[in-house]
Prefoldin subunit 5 (Raphanus sativus), 153 residues
Amino acid sequence: MASSSSSARGEMEKMGIDQLKALKEQADLEVNLLQDSLNNIRTANARLESAAGALNDLSLRPQGKKMLVPLTASLYVPGTLDEADKVLVDIGTGYFIEKTMDDGKDYCQRKINLLKSNYEQLFEVLAKKKSVADEAGMVLQSKVRQLQAATTS
């Protein structure tokens, strides 16, 4: 890793100030986009964890149990649990499929595992991009100082 970092710095040392500015801006933009993606994954993961918990809670309730059913995040209506062994799973873009309770739990767990894997991969990419942005910033500052020293001499 150190050799690839030093070779990247060597390449940056050969660049002009304008090129370094462009490289730093591009790397900073990519870092921001990756951070947004990580935040989105965290949000989706939290929603799936909540859904998995709700499925687990629902599976423990007896048939005929009265409960409040969420229509939106803040609107609940009274209902009665009819069949706890079948659930509707939102698979995206407004599509729902009926699954057994166990299949619904398995679906949530697979999605959670996928998101965790994606999060870890994106985090590694983010660390590398941040390193490039930091390195470009240091080389740019060094070149600007050299230019200022040359012009004041």
